[in-house]
């Protein structure tokens, strides 16, 4: 079903609109009756654990393990919240999934709710996803109409309601506790952890937050088995993953591949290589929070462990490719401006650190850098990591450290020459 289909999505199913009839015609809603009739919730959690599915939202946490943290004896309501905030720069696969494959997500959401004992679930949708939210609303109405949602689903005695909630376009509302605050109608500011959402989440009740792509994998795991899923890709990074490839490539887009794929294969075989005969300079492999890699890392596989060993991370799966016209100081200026704008302001290190990073990088890029600025930048990054309520602060510091690690000379040239050497050369 979707594994093969997503691979060929843009080529041979031009008129696919994501309706329930089309989804069912492609084998959809077969996993749901199987789960409800043949599997107890505990069996489902075990199956997902055995599959090795790791969260696709950023942290790569094992999905079945997270579900297992929900206390079974708690008298409180349990909630499942689907994270469809997708604001990480360079990432655009959840948007594709909700717009084109809404029922795959909804089927995954229903099965996952059954597994954790949830009777009311939410899809938290990024504010800008106006069309995607409409598609989801329509798909939910269709699912209610066929008896896949509501009371006594398929005669199983299991009840579930699902609501779409639209955010207002804040990156920090993708962080799961910022998201929960926002869903409760408050300002989207992350909470101190512990307690984690599995113990005290939405309305202080046990809650699982899972990414769109994570949940979209569930029907396939139920239908084809944990072993099938685990057999795809490396053992610790099982299953297919959607990579959003953008930047200087011939064919930008979403590519669903096993995580054993190398950066070289992804960029050159699948995305068509770098246009106009230019050279690859840098690649961000997991959204803008991920440290940058270079040509020397082209043979690194795209699994969680290998990318970490190479000094970066799989993150959100957003792969940003840059050719040799790109100025890394300018990239730093742009990335730091984003994090400064998106910091929620609760923690001094993040609020002030992101502002100072942006200020110093801007002055270097604009020919006003000082000799001591590079050490100042590294010192600031050091002070921003591991000290705050959420990891946005780390996410702002790590990329800048990596640009300095791999491209320090470029920063020095800016300072010595009192100008950007790429200026006026059609550079990014
Ligand atoms: C600043 C920040 C932004 C985040 N944005 C998103 C996001 O847009 N979508 C998402 O799924 N996860 C995002 N995450 C990760 C979530 O906090 C959480 O780990 C994830 O939704 C869990 O789902 P998963 O286990 O299925 O990956 C973000 C984390 C941080 C720190
Ligand atoms: S690290 Fe930044 S975004 Fe996260 S809670 Fe603190 S101030 Fe807010």
The gist of it:
With 428 residues, the protein is an alpha/beta fold.
Proportion in β-strands: 5-15%
Work out the radius of gyration: 22 Å
For this entry, what is the oligomeric state of its chains? single chain
Number of helices: 19
Q: Which CATH architecture of the largest domain?
A: 3-Layer(aba) Sandwich
Briefly note the CATH topology name of the largest domain: Rossmann fold
Q: Which of globular, elongated, flat, extended, rod-shaped describes the shape?
A: globular
Number of domains: 3
Q: For the record, what CATH class of the largest domain applies?
A: Alpha Beta
Query: What's the order of the H and E elements?
Result: HHHHHHEHHEHEHEHHHEEHEEHEHHHH
Main sheet, how many strands, which sense, barrel?
A: 5 strands, mixed
Strand order of the largest sheet: 6-5-9-7-8
Q: Can you offer a commentary on this structure?
A:
The protein is of the alpha/beta class and 428 residues long. It has three domains: 2-230, Rossmann fold; 240-323, Ubiquitin-like (UB roll); 328-417, de novo design (two linked rop proteins), CATH 1.20.1440. It is built from 19 helices and nine strands. It has a five-stranded mixed β-sheet. A four-stranded parallel β-sheet has the order 3-2-1-4, sandwiched between helices. α4 (31-38) packs parallel to α8 (102-116), α4 packs across α12 (218-224) and α7 crosses α9. It is globular. The two termini are 40 Å apart. The chain binds flavin mononucleotide (FMN) and iron/sulfur cluster (SF4). The site of flavin mononucleotide has 23 residues, from β4 and α19.
